[in-house]
Design brief:
heterodimer, A: mainly beta, six-stranded mixed sheet, globular, B: mainly beta, four-stranded antiparallel sheet, about 0% helix
């Protein structure tokens, strides 16, 4: 069965600093991977998805993620954090038939 | 722009009441899902549907039930609410073109059972 591990339940950065949110997956087949963002009192919004077309995936709001098969990782990065990036971020892997398995989430805190 | 709608957004209700959480989508998606999410926690799939008259239980056992009589509508019902049902419930949908299709989420219903 597929699974996702997100290291760090909380990540704190200063405004303008690099954002790095870690995600490692376990999958017996080539995976489809997703990053979602959840703002307070809202549902999840798709940031980006990996579908094997390219290992570096660009998403919305300046985020990108790199698929590394050798490391079974799909870390999310943004060169310069903005206050509006403060939210909960979820990594997910497709389990087939479009069922998703989500990680436990990482809360990003951005300080001025 | 939201194409998947959940009502109510917030509900505070007493123990023993029957509750129906509504979810509708305007994208014509065949697949729909219900997740349960406790504050600051991961999402757990409790129900899903691959089309009209198709419903399946998810990975997390739930006392709720669902129905799918119309493509766009996927309501969740609790026959007798209990405090243990207090949680946030998120509805999602996805298209049919392969496993790389993302799920689109509603804004959720935050349910509190007194």
């Amino acid at each position: 069965a597929q699974s996702v591990t997100q290291l760090g339940s909380h990540v704190s950065v200063s405004e303008g600093a690099l954002v790095l949110l870690r995600c490692n997956y376990s999958s017996s087949v080539p995976p489809y991977l997703f990053w979602y963002v959840q703002y307070p009192n809202q549902g999840l919004q798709l940031l980006l998805k990996y579908t094997s077309a390219a290992t570096l995936v660009k998403g919305i709001n300046g985020f990108e993620a790199e698929f590394k098969k050798s490391e079974t990782s799909f870390h999310l990065t943004k060169p310069s954090a903005h206050m509006s990036d403060a939210a909960e971020y979820f990594c997910a892997v497709s389990e087939g038939f479009q069922k998703l398995v989500f990680g436990t989430g990482t809360r990003l805190l951005v300080s001025p | 722009e939201a194409d998947i709608y959940q009502t109510p957004r917030y509900l505070v209700i007493g123990t023993g009441k029957k509750i129906t959480l509504e979810c509708s989508q305007t994208m014509g998606h065949d697949k729909m899902y219900w997740y349960q999410q406790d504050p600051g926690m991961e999402l757990h799939l409790i129900h899903y549907s691959y089309g009209v008259n198709s419903t399946e239980k998810g990975d997390l056992s739930s006392e709720s039930t669902v129905s799918r009589i119309r493509t766009e509508h996927f309501p969740l019902t609790l026959e007798s609410a209990r405090p243990s049902h207090t949680s946030q419930y998120l509805c999602a949908s996805s298209g049919s073109q392969g496993d790389n299709q993302p799920q689109h989420f509603g804004d959720g219903t935050r349910l509190s059972i007194l």
